[in-house]
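Sequence only, no structure available. Ideas?
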Amino acid sequence: MTTERELICIICPVGCVMRLFPDGEGSAPPRVEGADCAKGREYAEREATDPRRALTSTVKVRGGCFPLVSARSSAPLPKHMLLPAAASLRGISLQAPVAAGQVILPDIMGTGTALLATGTVERKKFH
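Reply:
I predicted one. Tokens follow.
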């Protein structure tokens, strides 16, 4: 972080407006002003040094009542990996049935984070 930055905390409903100031050392966390609690301060420091986000997407399903199932990462991924990780899911196709909580991919791009189904897709019934 090279310049001062403003950040709104998303940890609780208060939504503190925090200001981050670089420390000048490069490896130490930035100085945080405006955080009303320790969790907000931790959030701001992490956001400045290693921002992470949950990956949410859909995955193709063959032979199901629906052509897609919703999915999310089991833990947040480094922010810079979100687009490449999402692109890597395009080649995945599951066979129905798919259950909510089912592990779709055990290790997204070597991160150790799993991709989990968040919906259920039953097998298509032919009449």
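The mean pLDDT is 92.
Hope that gets you unstuck.
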